[in-house]
Each structure stands twice: as structure tokens, then as C-alpha cells.
Design a protein that fits this description.
about 45% helix; 3-stranded antiparallel beta sheet; binds pyridoxal-5'-phosphate; 2 domains; about 400 residues; alpha/beta
Length: about 400
């Protein structure tokens, strides 16, 4: 499978999570779109683009089980979060509730918007190891108050690779009439995302991570009842659109147009979906998950530390974060793994504790995993350099 990707064959790539990786056939489609654009830019951007984008939204809508008109293509999940943050009507006394597992860039969006509007950011800790879904929802709800204007939670978190019980969280938010946004940067492609079943008000997801589309492809979903409250992040031709360029949806008009740009990455999303169908990706995913279960078990043996998922495999999919002994210098370990064994894997501090996060994707072999385990074991027993 690795030969189907453009990845360096000499690197053991265990960090699909950060930026994804695109298979050759999908990348070829991406280049074809760019060539098509360059062949006749006016025809492409001026007359054909809306139709191409619509086809790409239909394909994604089918994949995510929602009406394609509830989806708009954007370059990345950060962009989607900024759109929602800028569209909320926030003021002094209002509260945005997030967890302590959220991605750093997203936390910055919420801190920025709170500073600007006078709202408060409430960061609710979800303790580890996790117990069960109900316990996670109950812990999150300790941060809810009468002033909560939005709950923001990852579908699969970045630092802890934790699969949050988002259907339960969205159901409880709806019962309490609190808008909720899900950060699905890591979810589509890693697990089944059914937007209808999830029931979020806002959901943003990356196509360039686990769906394996080219970089710069992502989407924002907004529930129909909330679409009229969405503002364009970049004001362009879609604001007060000429009748001949309007899609008939304010949501799409406001967000789809923001000046001249290359849409090729988003237009290649149907090819990424087709790649998953052609290579029976549900089976590949299941194989990766089984390999990951094995790695998680082995890593706990090597480190002597329990996993953060309480041994429950439902809390992770193709990515898992494992705690490291407290005295491990994570930068030193990361460099050691890359310099001595060409293993690309993130090692970092989260909430003051050292972690390593492993991604298992279809291109990773059992041999690569064994090499990684060997290198980690060697490091922990011989090379470890303490932070103190
Ligand atoms: C949970 C989470 N949210 C959002 C993002 C941002 O994704 P992007 O950089 O594509 O906007 C990431 C990136 O890794 C992430 O892990």
C-alpha cells in the first residue's frame, strides 16, 4: 500500500494525524484540476466552477450523510472555526465552553474572540484515564451555565486522540437549547461521520487528513436553521451577489466566494472518496485499528504506564496517545526516533505531562510497527535523557 502514496519510502511515517498523506491516484486528479484551470482560467473560474463545486459537495454530502447544501468547502478546519467564532453574537457575560483537550490553534480562536467581545472562555477539564461516555458528558456539563453561548468539542482530540461521545454531547446540548460546534479535523476518514445522526449545529472537518484528499480541503457544515446567521469571513462577490452568480443559498454565497483561488484540492475530494471505495477502506481501517490495539498494549508494557483509554478500544480509532515516563524529554525522544530510525512521530507535553501519539494508516506495515516498538524500548531503557 505504501507505494500508492508519495511518502518517502525510507521514513516510517507514524504521523498521519498532523497533515495526512495523499495517494498517487488522488494527487493525479488534483494535478488534472490544476491543469484544467490553467488551460482556460476564465472558462473554468467564470463559468464552470459553480457546477464543479456542486458536484464535489454532492459527493461529500453523500459521504457524510447530509444535504450538500448544508456543506461548504473551505481550506482547513481552522478556517471553519473562525467563521463560526466571527458569526456568533457574543458580548460581556457570555461564555464559550471548551475542554482541555482542544487543539492549540482552536483555543487561540476562542481566546481571540472572547478578548474582542468581552465573553469568557471556560475550559472544562476532562480527566484521564476516561471512564465511560456518561462520565465524559457529566464532566463536560460541570462547565455549562445559564450563560453558555456555545459548546465546542473535538470529535477526535489532537493531544489525546480521544474519540469523544459527540452524539450524546450534542443530544444533551439540544435538550438544553445550547448551540454546539464539533471540531472534526481528525474524524472523517478515520471513523464514520454521519452528520444527520450527530445532530451538531456546526461541524467542521478536514478532508486532507484521514480522507486523504490534497492539503487545503476541508468543509463546514451548518444546520439549516442556523445558516442565515453565518457571516462571510472574507467579503467578496457572494455578499449581495449578482443574480446570475447566486447559488440560491445565502450560506453558500457568503462562504464559497472569497476572491481568486485554486479550488483543486476541494474538487479532488470525490477522488479521495472513490479511492476509499476502490481499496475497501473500511476493511483497511479495521486492520489499522487492530494493529493500533496491539501497539497500545505493547507500549504500555514498554513504559510501564496504563493507557488513557482504560483499555476501552472504543475511545480511539487509528490514532492513540500514550503517556511517557514523567522524566522523558519529549524533544530528545522525537529527535532520537527520527535521527536513528527515521521514524516520524509526534512526542510532546500536554497538561504538563509527556506523551507520544501514534497514527496507523493503511500504508503502515506490521514490520514498521515492530521497528518502532524496538526503537522506543531501546530509548526508554538505554537512551532516556531526563528533563530535570
Ligand atoms: C483537533 C484539531 N482541530 C483543528 C485542527 C486544525 O486543522 P487545520 O490546520 O487543517 O486547520 C487540527 C490540526 O491538526 C486538529 O488536530
Amino acid at each position: 500500500m505504501k507505494s500508492k502514496f508519495l511518502l518517502d519510502p525510507d521514513v516510517i511515517f507514524l504521523n498521519h494525524g498532523s497533515f495526512g498523506a495523499t495517494p498517487r491516484p488522488v494527487f493525479d486528479v488534483y494535478l488534472d484540476w490544476q491543469r484544467k484551470l490553467e488551460k482556460q482560467p476564465v472558462l473554468f473560474l467564470g463559468r464552470e466552477l459553480q457546477g464543479y463545486l456542486e458536484q464535489a459537495r454532492i459527493s461529500l454530502g453523500h459521504y457524510l450523510n447530509t444535504n450538500p447544501n448544508n456543506l461548504v468547502y473551505i481550506p482547513n478546519a481552522t478556517f471553519g472555526i473562525n467563521i463560526i467564532a466571527r458569526s456568533l453574537d457574543l458580548g460581556q457575560g457570555d461564555e464559550i465552553l471548551i475542554t482541555n483537550h482542544e487543539y492549540g490553534a482552536c483555543q487561540r480562536v476562542w481566546r481571540f474572540i472572547c478578548k474582542k467581545t468581552g465573553a469568557s472562555l471556560i475550559k472544562q477539564a476532562i480527566s484521564l484515564p476516561v471512564k465511560d461516555d456518561d462520565d465524559i458528558v457529566d464532566q463536560l456539563w460541570r462547565g455549562v451555565s445559564q450563560r453558555t453561548k456555545l459548546i465546542f468539542v473535538s470529535h477526535i482530540s489532537s493531544p489525546t486522540a480521544l474519540a469523544f461521545p459527540i452524539e450524546e454531547i450534542c443530544a444533551r446540548a439540544r435538550q438544553n437549547d445550547i448551540p454546539i460546534m464539533i471540531d472534526g479535523a481528525h474524524a472523517p476518514g478515520q471513523t464514520k461521520v454521519d452528520l444527520q445522526a450527530i445532530g451538531a449545529d456546526y461541524y467542521t472537518g478536514n478532508c486532507h487528513k484521514w480522507m486523504m484528499a490534497p492539503k487545503g480541503s476541508a468543509f463546514l457544515y451548518v444546520r439549516p436553521e442556523r445558516q442565515l446567521s453565518i457571516e462571510p469571513l472574507i467579503v467578496s462577490w457572494g455578499w449581495e451577489p449578482e443574480p446570475n452568480i447566486s447559488t440560491g443559498s445565502q450560506f453558500l454565497d457568503y462562504l464559497q466566494t472569497w476572491g481568486t483561488r485554486d479550488h483543486s484540492a476541494c474538487l479532488s475530494v470525490p477522488a479521495a472518496i472513490q479511492f476509499q471505495i476502490d481499496y475497501k477502506w473500511e476493511e483497511v481501517r479495521a486492520g489499522c485499528h487492530n494493529l493500533l490495539k496491539y501497539v497500545v498494549h505493547k507500549m504500555t508494557e514498554i513504559t510501564g504506564l496504563n493507557d488513557i483509554y482504560s483499555g476501552s478500544e472504543g475511545f480511539f480509532h487509528q490514532m492513540a496517545a500514550l503517556p511517557l515516563p514523567e522524566d522523558v524529554d519529549t524533544l530528545h525522544l522525537k529527535d532520537f526516533l527520527y535521527e536513528t530510525a527515521r521514524i516520524e512521530i509526534p512526542c510532546y507535553q500536554w497538561e504538563g505531562h509527556p506523551y507520544i501519539r501514534i497514527s496507523v494508516q493503511g500504508y503502515n506495515s506490521a514490520e514498521e510497527i515492530e521497528q518502532f516498538l524496538l526503537a522506543l524500548k531501546f530509548y526508554i531503557s538505554h537512551e532516556r535523557r531526563g528533563t530535570g
